[in-house]
Amino acid sequence: MDSVEEIENALEIDIASADNLVVEDCRRLTGPGFLWELPGAVLHLTFDTFTPEQITAVWHKNARQVLDAVGWADETFTERAFEGGLNLAISAPMDQLYSSVFVIQTAWHFCAAELLSTPAGKFDAMIKDLKSVMQREANPALVALMRAGCDRDLDVLCDDDEISIGHGVGSQTWSVGNLPAAHDLDWSQLHNIPVALITGTNGKTTTTRLSAAIAKAAGKTSGLTSTDFVQVGDDVLDRGDYSGPGGARLLLRDRRLEIAFLEVARGGILRRGLPTRQADVALVTNVAADHLGQYGVNTVPELARAKFSVHRALKDKGVLVLNADDEFVVAEAANTYASIWWFSLNPASPEITASVNVAQPCAWLNGNQIVFFDGQQKTGVIDVRDIPITMGGAARYNILNALGATCVSRALGLDFASIRAGLSGFKNDTSDNPGRLNEFHVNGARLFVDFAHNPHSVAAVADTVAALPAARRFVLLSHAGDRTDNDIRDVTLTALKMRPDVVVAAELPDYLRGRKSGEVSDLIVETCYSSGMDNKQVIRATSPFDGVAKVLEKLQAGDVALLLVLSERDQVFELLARHSD
Predict the structure, then answer these.
(1) What would be the CATH architecture of the domain defined by 195-425?
(2) pLDDT tens digits, 89-101
């Protein structure tokens, strides 16, 4: 078997293009995702002057012809239309995913030639080239081992270098170039562990950490993946954005692991797919406008559909936990076949009422009490004022996160005593939940650091801070340059709802992303002025660190500051720690 690099560069498929018909991207799909449950390849296409029907007609014809010609008669194809484009996909054997990229490009080669009336390559010669690459990539031992694992309902995780069967304490991992025969394995030693997938626009990191804390309180060696790190117990395996399949494989192959909580981000779902087909529970926290316009996801309902991809990774009796207070979540729930456990701040929510009437588990807030209904009995779990991250109940979004974590924990079989211990012991500090409304006290003032960056998340933290008594209010704002002018104005206007006395507009020098230095700050400042603030109330800063330093210079006893820090986070935490009372 050739190396990955050799396979990746084995062919170059010439595809006709024009201004009105452009291939934006082509990549492998390694697991279930937005389009379907199958591995294979996807092609991202934009066009005008053509209709989707014109393109799909030639796509159906050529995709089927090429799949049959290379010997993939059992494989299939699909498509998804969005405004101005199409996602086209084919399925492929798991040992042929690099070849599948060449296969889909070849199918599109003939589609493009037909649509643009340009000469096409010789079909037989191109198929011969494809088969040659497929033979070089083929790994029958891998396919046999994967089939044996799947036949035993064991999760099989595969990447370029390794394959593993089972999870955590019940897993074993081998090099893809040195695989055992299925009959040589002691299958009794291999098993899956409880796994939760947690996604949504906001709250997924906090809910993932909160759920892992509950499992730890239950005496389990819990682990998590997130946008910040991969962790097993108290051991951080690596730092960075590990909210995709790579982080999940790193975690699930750790043989200390007994229960897993995987943060699943939109990017990972759309680029590669989900890491597992054997999750016990999946949670969608909420859906709001963020990162729209990528991979053909242009609207919030389309983003909801992408987030709901997690239901494709559930076991047959798996549970989908959903936020009944989110309109986009409620709307998309009609399109899933999974068993749903709803949660809500409103005990009279239609989804909660319907769940209770049909004896379906759910959870809600009753006064200050989190209540869980198991289908027969209602249990008062905990007073939200005893959950530190709710800030005495003021942080409503964290009550929702606690409700979601409660449902996830019950779906995984964790007891109420552990849920109470986990919820009451989890704090808004840089140890338990870094970057999520972390509180510092300086000279009698209260400062809160949060990584919120879209209107939905900024609104949640701004509403919480606005509810606190304050002599004066400060807010630090910044934004990456790849957001639109309207995005930057919207976030600024959202933050201004907390009625700040002073706004610090900080530049992000490492995240200009095509903009000129000062351009983002100008938008923030102009929005503040147009909202009635004067130049004495608006301060410019060269960076978040510089901005925080400027805030510290002005703070007095009784003031409250919300610091939305999107870079230089460690330096900011160190600065605040040095000045803390």
Answers:
(1) 3-Layer(aba) Sandwich (3.40)
(2) 999 999 999 999 9
